[in-house]
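Reviewer 2 asked us to include a model.

Predict the structure of this chain.
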Amino acid sequence: MESSRIETLQRRIENELLQNILPFWEKEVVDPESDGFWARISNDLKVKERTPKGLILNTRILWTFSAAYNIYHNPHYLAMADRAYAFVQNHFWDEEHGGMLWMLDENGRPVDTSKKIYGQAFSIYSLAEFYRATHKKEALDRAVELHHLIELHNFDHVHSGYFETSNRDWSLAEDLRLSEVDMNEKKSMNTHLHMLEAYTQLYRVWPNEVLEARLRKLIDNFLSHIIDRRTHHMRLFFNEAWNVRLANVSFGHDIEASWLLDEAAAVLKDGALIETVRQETVAIAEAVYTEALAPQGGIYYERKEDGSLKEDLEWWPQAEALVGFLNAFQNSRQEKFIKAVERVWDFCDHYLIDHENGEWFYKVGPDLKPDFRLYKVSEWKCPYHNGRACMEAMRRLESLKQPAPGII
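Predicted model (structure tokens):
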């Protein structure tokens, strides 16, 4: 790839991160009436007050600004991370049973006390990143404590993997769903993907033997159960014995998993495992490239069991496609993947980035017009996907400027 293309793409992406995404969250989302953040903001920047505050939004803010501080050492980013850390610790932590609560009311009182493992995983992920930024031992201790609680209560010692949801006292819940659109099954791809992400990050700062074994087992779960090795797509929902319950394909999760699996294998420094995972992740990226790229340049959200495409183009699959295709280019040096990165970024720039009010729209429809009914800030609309994509893409593009080993 020509250096001028790298420089141009890198500059555009960094400008988006520093001039749009991060300033939006600093300026618009801090709640001056509390110690936390607004939970819901419309596209025209109107705050919806008296909205419940969710664990995912707050841990993702914590991760994003901790990660940004680790790159730029900007004290404003650290202040945002400190605020998010304090809010999560003071309001979401369950003093009685341990673990993070799922949802609070607008005044910080619990309204959903379930222990969704997806939420515990994001707590670990963000706490480990915050520890990297601050070296506060209490943050690492809390992340390790969450790891121990998950392993004690939700690890399946018979079939391996993790049960989706516990009640407040860590007994297995009857309603296991992450959200209303999910299936009520014992295990899911989504929870395991973010457990993989969380344990990878925790292992970077706490290389514990038990954690290493569980991270290896998570990678094995993907290679043995979650990935369909014939089609190179993720299976989505399972019973406890890993029997598949849904045949939909989630292209955004596929491309996200491709690079997160490579990252997980890399931290373990096992050459054979790295190569095995790399071969599969390039195949996953190839499947997404072949089957999900829309004519406009983005990637479709999913394909249903009947073969029909959900043609809406949401913000987060585009963000993950930027990193996933770039990762595939690094692993294969196939020119089509770097061209896909450029196409996806152009799509985001033209259709998803809100150049007037900041941040990104939630999605555009087949007509390429934003869906203004969906909030710009909400429990699921956070700075993590697009913020992380910018930071990861910049790092990976920088590495492409370096000569390959052995080349003078």
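Residues 1-30+248-400 form a domain with the Glycosyltransferase fold (CATH 1.50.10.10). The chain has two domains: 1-30+248-400, 49-245. We have added this to the supplementary material.
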